[in-house]
Amino acid sequence: MKKSVVSFLSAALLLSSLSSVALAEQSNVSPQGLITPKAVGADSGWQTQSNIRAKVYTNSTYYGAGSDTITVTAEKSTVGAAYYSIYLMSDTQMVKVASGTLGSSVTHQVPKSSLNPILNQYSQGNFKVLLKIFAYGDWFTWLGDWETTNSFIAVRLD
User: Signal peptide span per the entry (predicted)?
Assistant: First the structure.
């Protein structure tokens, strides 16, 4: 009996530690030291350009007929504000969907209809997200581009 209890507890401890490892592999450690879930959609990953550490991502890789919005988040871990613009891009065209001032994080619920100029009616397409960052107070001083490495699919039926 004692041997089977020890075996059971050992197995439970092993499973618990494996669960922690699996959870850690599905998370990112943010620059603030917090463990945050990885984005499940298109994602640029953290990149540094012109001393700006930032990333851009969506919450999904598929926005079907039932989706009205595309959730896009831009994050910046370096100190200070910056101007930004966000674009959705196909292989040959892009459309600007948001711009403003970026402190540390901003999330936009982009209407899927924003893709109408570059996505034909009754079709679907693959799109990436492009984040352009500019110096705060100066839209003419471009600091870098952050582009998702993978794409998302959007479906247009109207």
Answer: 1-24
